[in-house]
Model the fold of this input.
Amino acid sequence: MEISRELGVTPATVTYAVKRLLAAGLLREAGFAQSKGGKRASLLRLNDQARWAIGCTIDADRLSLAGVDLTGALRARIAVPLGASPSRRRWAGRCTGP
Done:
């Protein structure tokens, strides 16, 4: 196993980790490698839709949210205006930034 040699771990360790990642839906099988005899190696790829990360920024006048998949590709983005409200004005004087 190429990965086990690169990482300096046993093939069994890689197999165990791959099985767990497949079961969690983070990896998916993508066919088989060409073989020169013996068992063909499975090709694996990241399931980029398995999880998303969300980031946000809060500005004085808006809240911005962005969602990215596991490859870092932008999948969703929204900016919500923040209007002036009595409670916001009351808290604005208490909040300080770096």
User: Anything to note?
Assistant: The beta strands are 27-32, 42-46, 52-58, 62-69, 74-81.
